[in-house]
Structure to design on (355 residues):
């Protein structure tokens, strides 16, 4: 449309309400209807909070089941008990990198041979019990907080700052609510006994009981400070994911009723890319959190790992910077597809439940 044509159209729209006779109010009404229609076309439909809650839970469940064996490998590589495995076989930095890449596959095969197929899914129960409410709470809180903050601080419009505040709120809320579940999952995954008699914990309930008996209620919240630090990863992921979605949403693609398989796949892939970047930036907190949650290692009658910064200092001093990235390969192999599956499922369920 030329500039003159556009100006003519604007003049007609502005003067239309004055052009009619006694029945001319019709023109003014038509103008309002046209403008409302234009606004409505590109308006993203509101999604009820419960939709995010249910869809997030289903997405978390799908991702957890699909990637459970790699989660087990990652946890073991991060733990104190497995640090010797990587260091004894890594006299040089080159060998360390090589073994870091290959060790997840070696450990996966070793677990299968020595502990059986079922051992690959150790911690799946607590993982599901944790993933479903964790993802439900996270997606629900993020959606609710994003809506609240945008209306309160930015006239209902979203931007990077709103995404940042909403993601931080969701991360802290989720970490506080689910830390005991993740602690139990970590303990079970590090319990390497093949038979019941060899194991420290018989099941999840036995693990909770023994933790409360031996370590008190505070024992269930070990690693919480590291989880709060880990919220940074979730914050980065949400911000990157939202920005990737904006890039994918070209002006002629913003009709949310006509999403295609291609757009869904691109969004899911964007979630995986966002997770990859966020994980690379924030990974050391994962190692520290695992050390704090594992069965306490005693030194002179006191726990070796007693707090966030103290654990960072001990691991760095005794094992070097390399140990801060123990299990990174397994972590990326698990979390990237996990995010793709989780966010992809969440997108699908959000559309289905909204209808």
């Amino acid at each position: 449309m030329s500039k003159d044509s556009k100006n003519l159209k604007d003049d007609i729209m502005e003067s239309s309400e004055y052009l009619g006779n006694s029945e001319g109010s019709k023109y003014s009404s038509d103008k309002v209807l046209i403008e409302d229609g234009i606004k409505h076309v590109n308006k993203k439909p509101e999604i009820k909070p419960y939709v995010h809650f249910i869809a997030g839970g289903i997405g978390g469940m799908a991702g957890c089941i699909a990637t459970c064996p790699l989660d087990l490998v990652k946890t073991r590589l991060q733990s104190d008990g497995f640090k010797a495995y990587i260091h004894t076989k890594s006299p040089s930095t080159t060998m360390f990198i090589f073994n870091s890449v290959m060790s997840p596959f070696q450990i996966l095969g070793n677990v299968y041979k020595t502990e059986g197929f079922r051992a690959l899914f150790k911690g799946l129960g607590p993982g599901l019990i944790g993933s479903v409410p964790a993802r439900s709470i996270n997606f629900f809180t993020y959606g609710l907080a994003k809506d609240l903050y945008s209306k309160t601080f930015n006239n209902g419009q979203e931007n990077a700052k709103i995404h940042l505040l909403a993601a931080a709120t969701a991360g802290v809320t989720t970490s506080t609510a689910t830390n005991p579940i993740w602690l139990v999952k970590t303990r079970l995954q590090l319990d390497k006994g093949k038979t019941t008699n060899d194991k420290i914990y018989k099941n999840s309930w036995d693990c909770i009981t023994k933790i409360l008996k031996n370590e008190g209620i505070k024992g269930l919240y070990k690693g919480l400070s590291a989880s709060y630090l880990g919220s940074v990863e979730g914050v980065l992921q949400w911000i990157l994911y939202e920005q990737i979605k904006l890039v994918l949403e070209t002006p002629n693609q913003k009709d949310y009723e006509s999403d295609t398989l291609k757009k869904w796949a691109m969004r899911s892939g964007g979630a995986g890319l966002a997770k990859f970047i966020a994980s690379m930036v924030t990974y050391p907190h994962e190692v520290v959190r695992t050390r704090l949650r594992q069965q306490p290692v005693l030194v002179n009658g006191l726990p070796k790992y007693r707090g966030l910064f103290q654990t960072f200092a001990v691991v760095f001093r005794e094992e070097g910077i390399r140990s801060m990235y123990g299990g990174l390969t397994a972590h990326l192999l698990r979390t990237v597809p996990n995010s793709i599956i989780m966010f992809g499922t969440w997108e699908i369920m959000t559309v289905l439940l909204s209808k």
Notes: Residues 16-28, 31-43 have pLDDT under 50 and may be disordered. The first strand starts at residue 298 and ends at 299.
